[in-house]
Each structure stands twice: as C-alpha cells, then as structure tokens.
Model the fold of this input.
Amino acid sequence: MAQADSPPATEFAIETKGLVKQFGLIEALRGIDFEMRTGEFLTIFGPNGAGKTTLLSILASLAQPTAGSARVAGYDVTDSDPRMRRQIGVISHASFLYADLTAQENLVFYARLYGLDQPEELALRALEGVELSLRRHDKVGTFSRGMIQRVSIARAMIHNPSILFLDEPYTGLDQHASLLLESQLKKLKTEKRTVLMTTHDFGRGLEMCDRVAVQVKGRFALHLTREKIDPATFEQLYIDTVEQVK
Amino acid sequence: MNSYLGQIKAILWKDFLTEYKTRELFSSMFVFAVLVILIFIFSVDLSLVNSNEVGPGVLWVAVIFAGTLGLNRSFTLEKEDSGLQGLLLAPIDRSAIYFGKMLSNLVFFLIMEAFILPVFMVFFNIDLLANLGPLLFVLLIGTLGFSILGTLLSSLSSNLKTREIMLPLLLYPLMVPIAIGAVRLTSHVLGGGELGDMMNWVGMILCFDVIFLAVSIMTIDHILEE
Done:
C-alpha cells in the first residue's frame, strides 16, 4: 500500500510536451513545452489572455488538455490521480473558501478532505503561520481581501504539498499581506518545494525564481534562467517580447 | 489514507455546519412548501373532494417544488468563490463529492418533510399518525429518488447561466415515474391500505432510485470536470 501511494520515480516534478488547449475556436494554449526539477521556482509573466491560468488549471488537473501531455509529480494529469492531487497546492484569485464558515472551520474541512490527522490542531497551526489565529473563530465572509488570501495560503499549505501552483497570488493584497506572502514563498524556496507562479509583478516575480518564462498567445515566447536576466532591463525585454509575438 | 466514507463525512459536516449557521436552505424550503399547501387548500373545496385523494398529490408537489429551491442552492453554494474547485483539487474521488451533496440534500429534505407533515395533517384533516410507519417509508424512498436525481441535475445545471430555469425543466419530466409512484403509494397508505398490496409501485420507485444512482455514478466525473 505504501509503495502504491508513493509518487512514481521521475526526473522532473513537472513536465509538459506540446500542451494545447482549445475552447471552441479559441486556442488558449498552442504547444507548451517545459520541465521543472524538484525544488525549482519558475515564474511565468504574460499579458492578460495569454493562457497562464489555463496552463495552471491543466497542471492542477482541473481542466483537460486538447492535445499534448503533462506530468506532475510523475502522474499524468489527464488521469486526475488523487495521489497527484495530494502532492499539489493551489493559490489563485479565488480563495476556495466558504464565506459562512470561520477560518478555522474552513481549514478543518480541507484537512478532513485530505484525510489528515488532528485537523483542528493542523488548522490552528496553519492559521498561526499566516498570523490569523486570533481571528480563527470569525467568518471568512467578514474578512478583507488580504486576510482571505492569507487563509487561502494556509488552505493550500495545510497538507504540506511538494508542488505549488500560484496564480497571480499578489492580486488584491495589501502591503502587509504581500510581505507575508513573500516570506511564505521564501520559506517554500528554502524547503526545496517546486513552485510555479504566474504574476504581473516583475519585482516579486524575479526575486525568488530560478527561471523565467514569458507566455504570449498560448506559447512561451521567452524562457530563460534567472542568471541571464538583468532586472533593470527586464521590463523592456518583456515589452519587446510581447510586441514581437503580437 | 483518507477513507471514502471519511471524504463523504467531511462534505456532510461542511454542509450541515453551513446550514446550521445560515438556515437559508431550510427556512426557504419550509416556507415555500407551506405556501404551496395553503394555495391548494384555498383552491380546492375539501367538502366536495376526498382529502385522501387530493392530499398526497399536494404533499408531493410541495416537497418537489420546495426541494427544487434547495437543489438550486446546493451546487450554487459550491460555485461561490470556486469552492467546487477546492473540492476537485482535494485527493478525493469525484463520486464522494456527489454522495456528500446527495446525502446532505436528502437529510435537508427529510427534515423539511418532518416539519410540513403536521401542517399538511392539520389543513387536510388527515390522521397521519395511524399510518405513520408506511407513510415514512414511502416518503423516504420517494425523497431518496428525488435527491439522487436532483443532486445530479443540480451539479449539471450549476454550470449554466440559466440554472434556476434549467434545473426544473430537466428534473420534473424525469421525476414523473417516482412522483406518480409516490403519490399512489401515499394515497394508498393514508387510506389505511397495506404497503404489501402495492409492492409493484414500491419496486418501481426503488428501481428508478437504483437506475438514477447508477447513472449519477457513471456521469459525475464528466459533469464535474471543467
């Protein structure tokens, strides 16, 4: 049983080949190829409508690709294997939280869904991690956007995933919440977790990543290691890349 | 490892807790069911017709109409701030999501019925207590079928913009066999008849319950995807 539950041996934490996604006549992804080793941090920049969220949805097994293949933690995403979903955590614009439940109840619910022992204790620890333990008995519906996002971070991390998908996690966050998220991401990096983040924030996106990709019109128009990028000129490089593809 | 039953229990716990805090579902279903009964009471002269013949139909119309309100809310709640995506990301079987929602709907419907039965008894002047056992059995198998089919169609229609319209349009035609059987059986037991005399109707309802359950299990993966 233990052997069946352990992830398949694989060189890459994430691997995609010719990933295509069509919504009717619209091609959201037009052949995405990349690999990420365990512990790598990849930031994807791109204009709105470039297909970044679609890519993350497919990798998180929330959507099926039209063509091509993708493997996450060694599992084919089209199989939607529960063992793969156990390995991943997702933070996006949507919080996946229930407004009528308290922060603590939301996290206990997710801990139970993941079959974790001592869900109450885990929920409390997770809320302490995002500095919200004092508000744990308050309904999430009464929280500010920044606080909701902090609970969302706790939710995504409660099962200790090895791979994180972050879809524009800084959207709507105040300064304090942004700093808190930043410190959480730095912690993830030191813990050697694989992180795939999409963002429009150049400063934060470049700060922690090992590699950078610019996605335009469903394709990686640029894919470089962090060392090859000068933060001072990246904005111009990004604009030129996007203009070139358009 | 997370057990299948544990996953269903987690969803049930979340739904009951939400309902306990808001009481949105129960209050709207109960008030609507009472209104349906009242409308029929005012439109039918009970001195001219036999209550036992009209009453069961009214009872099931109230249950199905009021239950549709609850079904509409059931998956809409999961769509708010993408709660359903949170469920789909969890390492649980898609059918566990269906069973969790279906069982919570069933319990909510049964609680609503427990509250509208006394109202029905008073307004239609029918002694339910004399035949309570068989009546509860009929309510259980009929409501089970309604919950099985309703939860499946609620998950399907929750993706549509016109979900409030589409759910009854899809649900009511498919509910016809169960509704006819349930009304016939209710009328029979309220008239003092034995359930054993109507086993063909009991069998038919149970048969549809099983068919709808099998269809739900086979299709829920595709319905919940994307």
In short: The first helix of chain B runs from residue 4 to 22. Chain B has one domain: 4-224.
